[in-house]
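Quick check before the chapter quiz. The format below is the same one you will see on the exam, so make sure you can read both the input and the output lines.
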Amino acid sequence: MAKKKPTARQAARSAVTKKWTGRHGTAKSTARKAVKSKARSVPVKATKAKPKPKQRIAVSHHREEDFKADGLRTYARYRDLGIADATSGLARAHVIRFTGPCDPAEVSKLHFHDIDFQMVYVLKGWVKTYMEGQGETVMREGSAWTQPPRVKHMILDYSDDAEVLEVILPADFKTVELMA
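Here is the expected output.
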């Protein structure tokens, strides 16, 4: 009996070795072979990821004087949260305070952003938006939404106290205005 145990272990060990080292066996499927041949044809350089930008901690405390008229919309004040600098341009986050009353001639312009990601969260008041594929929606305090890359949208109306948090990737992006 002592001789059978080492023999059984040797047989099991060689079966495992065949399975994991790629030695030919009857258990392999043709689908697996096709995947292996495709993977071998991909150059190693093409699979390397770009180095991620260096990031640091960003802290931003509320100060009224930080709201500036230096953003995309002329009818809003922006408080930059320092995310663009801290992420080397990977993302931007700012609080947008809309200045009332809403003037649809200035505000309601159909456009899209050439971005990878955009998320908006209503901090105060309400904002009425139009988004392609969604239609008109009123977003109230506590509402959040994402806008996929290049989705056509516009602001239709907002309350006099409307304030939103917007997060965008990348930090710098192109906006294209469209004919409604």
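If your answer matched, good. Confidence is low (pLDDT under 50) at residues 11-37.
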